[in-house]
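Technical annex, item 7. During the second reporting period the consortium partners agreed on a shared format for inverse folding records so that results from different sites could be compared directly. Each record opens with the tokenized structure and is followed by the designed sequence. A conforming record, contributed by the partner at site C, is shown below for reference.
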């Protein structure tokens, strides 16, 4: 039986520890939590006991990370901490003899990525990246259609991702709003999308050019639209009560226990105003990518739209595929886990060059992302199974997805296209 410890008990952590406690007790043993915040770890233990009927496990503050590894002797470390700290825990875990499962993004810049790659080579240990979107049945179906040559060689892809005023706005309330923490949405969020393109096309990025900025959120943009009333955070603010962009932690027992009650330890405020100062990430982005196989991608991300999901079109030598996916809107940790990534609309249309177009049926499943989340969890914690689509993401996949966003961030700074090979040595 493999032993697991988990680092970072915030909003994403329960996806992993809940699955172990609920579905994989026979093969996996959860032995410890680690976090900068004791209150949050205590709440995670409360969930283990009350929601999953699992006994509480030892907790270690992050300053005692190495002590935890020595005492608990885990086989695998699960990293779900703040993005800028991923590399620290990944590297030290590898050096201490553990394999790693990390939440995306693997890290946020090329220097940290190089350190992870070098450590993997030095230690011979394994890092897996939790890309659940690969496992969503509609995304796997797209890979199957392209792999089976339904539209020939794909020469270009147009990919538009829409984040709405619940989920999209949430990145501007939390620690993600500081680019030093998250790498911005090109790294934190778009890593999913760039990984999908790598996965769909079976290639890797070569050159990246990006344009964008903070055009909707932030105080200056609100002032330019005529807003005159502002607040720093929603909790305790009269002005926030009528703001549709505000999140009220005290109205959600889960968010209150995880964040509001834990504030006294580290000062982290989960409910900052999306129209406040101090936001350094972009909300409007356009990217042009050329791949090693000569395919090109035109990509856009907007974080303030009326609906959530994506449209993507593939133009090939034998035809075209058009996809439209509308997801159920949600706030991270603000509702039922099963709501995250649930689909409200799905359409895949194949248009052969000299034949009638047709709809492609996709069989979904229970769980988030159309059944993709349970499939990912089974891949991480269950018995190994053959997968013709090779959806399990390695550290190379993790690096290639973030390097598109990292190159995009460099392009935003310089105004120039960036060669991905110039960023890192494998």
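Designed sequence (site C submission):
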């Amino acid at each position: 039986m493999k032993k697991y410890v988990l680092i970072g008990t915030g909003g994403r952590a329960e996806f992993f520890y809940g699955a172990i406690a609920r579905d994989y007790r026979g093969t996996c043993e959860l032995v410890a939590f680690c976090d900068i915040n004791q209150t949050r770890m205590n709440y995670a233990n409360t969930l283990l006991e009350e929601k999953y009927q699992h006994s509480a496990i030892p907790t270690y503050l992050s300053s005692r990370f190495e002590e935890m590894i020595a005492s608990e002797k885990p086989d695998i470390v699960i990293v779900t901490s703040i993005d800028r700290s991923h590399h620290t825990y990944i590297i030290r875990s590898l050096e201490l003899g553990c394999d790693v499962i990390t939440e995306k993004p693997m890290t946020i810049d090329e220097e940290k990525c190089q350190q992870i790659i070098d450590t993997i080579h030095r230690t011979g240990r394994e890092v897996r990246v939790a890309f659940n979107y690969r496992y969503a049945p509609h995304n796997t179906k797209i890979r199957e259609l392209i792999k089976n040559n339904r539209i020939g060689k794909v020469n270009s892809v147009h990919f538009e991702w829409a984040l709405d005023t619940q989920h999209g706005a949430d990145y501007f309330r939390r620690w993600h709003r500081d680019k030093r923490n998250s790498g911005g949405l090109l790294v934190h969020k778009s890593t999913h999308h760039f990984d999908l393109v790598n996965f769909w096309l079976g290639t890797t990025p070569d050159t990246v050019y990006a344009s964008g900025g903070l055009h909707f959120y932030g105080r200056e943009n609100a002032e330019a639209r005529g807003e005159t009333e502002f607040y720093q955070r929603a909790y305790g603010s009269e002005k926030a009560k009528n703001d549709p962009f505000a999140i009220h932690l005290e109205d959600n027992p889960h968010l209150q226990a995880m964040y509001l009650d834990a504030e006294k330890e580290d000062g982290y405020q989960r409910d900052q105003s999306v129209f406040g100062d101090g936001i350094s990430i972009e909300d409007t982005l356009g990217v042009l990518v050329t791949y090693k196989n000569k395919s090109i991608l035109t990509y856009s991300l907007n974080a303030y739209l009326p609906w959530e999901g994506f449209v993507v079109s593939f133009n090939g030598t034998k035809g075209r595929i058009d996809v439209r996916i509308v997801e159920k809107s949600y706030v991270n940790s603000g509702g039922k886990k099963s709501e995250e990534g649930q689909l409200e609309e799905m359409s895949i249309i194949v248009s052969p060059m000299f034949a009638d177009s047709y709809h492609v049926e996709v069989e979904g499943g229970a769980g988030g992302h159309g059944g993709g989340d349970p499939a990912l969890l089974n891949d991480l914690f269950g018995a190994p199974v053959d997968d013709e689509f090779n959806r399990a993401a390695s550290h190379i996949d993790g690096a290639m997805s973030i390097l598109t966003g990292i190159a995009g961030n460099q392009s935003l700074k310089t105004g120039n296209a960036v060669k991905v090979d110039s960023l890192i040595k494998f």
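The mean pLDDT is 95. The CA atoms of residues 313 and 322 lie 5 Å apart. All partners now use this format for quarterly exchanges.
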